[in-house]
Structures are given as C-alpha cells and as structure tokens.
Amino acid sequence: MTKIAVIYYSLYNHCKTLAETALASTKADGVDAEIYQVPETLSDEILAKMHAPPKADYPIITPDKLTEFDGYIFVIPTRYGRAVSQFSSFFDATGGLWATQALSKKFATIITSTGTQHGGQETTALTTLPFFAHHGIIFVPLGYATPDMLNMDQILAGGPWGAGTLAGADGSRQPSELELRIVGVHAKHFVDVVSKFVKGA
Where are any strands of DSSP class E within the chain? Predict the structure, then answer.
C-alpha cells in the first residue's frame, strides 16, 4: 500500500485546513495517509503575543519518520517568498538522512499559503526544490490538472507548482471552496503518481 505523509506548519490554521483537506483526499483513494506538524520554533511567550490559537492535536514529525513513507505532501506557509523558518529548521535537521540518501526516490509535492496574491507562492515552491534535489526526492507539481486552475471569476491562489490559499494581509481570509477543491485534486494527482511508482516497483 502507498504510504503518504501530509506534513504542515500553521500559525493561524490556514495551512491546517489545507492539510486536512489534502489528507481527506488521499484517504479517499485508499492509501495509508497520516498527518503531522513540523516542530514549533517560537516560544509560548512569542506565540501568545502573536495571538496564535492553540495547536491542533496532530503528532510532531521527526526526520527519521520520513523514511516510513513513499511520498510527502508539504503544506508550507510563506515568509518573504520562501518557506517559514519552522520548515527550514525541520529540513536542516535531516542531514543524517541526506548522508545515507535514505530519502532517495521518495516523492514530494508542495501546497502553499501567502498573505497576499503576490506574496511568493511560486518562489516558496522553487526555493524548496534544492532540499528535494539534495535528498534525491522527486518533485511532483500540480500542473493544470483541473479546469478550476483557469478560473478568472474570483481570487485564486496556487498555480502549476501547487495548490494554495491566500490568508489576507491580516490573516482574516480563510481558504475558499474553490481553493480547497483544487487542493483535493492536487492530493489525488500526487497519490496517483506515487502509487503508480510503488506498484511498478
């Protein structure tokens, strides 16, 4: 059975919603899927000052856990056009896996969230690719897997690099129904690609 990990970081629950949507979509395809959070790097004091809500009760991923899965759906918030520091810290902790190439021939895809339409969703995906390349992880983009990608009737996040949402500059905007639908398609597309490889192997 194909094993997929949905791995996210979320400060104000936007990426949590995206991750849960992706998880539901992978499970609908009958794969073994689990959801994890990357470790928090901010102190409780700082989180309180930022008015961050409590974290969801999902397990915290550790680098060694990555070896148990065939593919990863990374749900990554953007900070200045790249992955937030919590994700960067987690990636930096995988040096031992890199040394043994333990993640080679695994698969990954990226779903993002930004505060604004031009906040760097594509650059977040692009600047995450070096991590994949060093580990030998195969990147699976969304492409234009659904006609919803061409929707011009409403504000829409994401693109061929991957699905996403726009949180608004103040974090008040929640993922739209259209964005969540594309997240579902993205997850199904990723599962299909990874499952074909697993079955062929």
Answer: 3-8, 32-37, 71-79, 82-83, 107-114, 138-139, 164-166
Class of domain 3-200: alpha beta
The average pLDDT across 58-70 equals 98
Tens of pLDDT, residue by residue over 3-24, are 999 999 999 999 999 999 999 9
Verdict on whether the full-model pTM lies above 0.70: yes
Phi, psi of 142 (to 5 degrees): -75, -35
172, two tokens: 């008040």
- Alpha carbon separation from 139 to 75, 103, 163, 194 (Å, rounded): 14, 12, 14, 11
Residue 169 has phi, psi (to 5 degrees) of -60, -30
**Rounded to the nearest 5°, which phi and psi values hold at 51?**
60, 35
Residue spans per domain, the chain = 3-200
How many CA atoms, within 13 angstroms, populate the side-chain half-sphere of residue 20?
A: 10
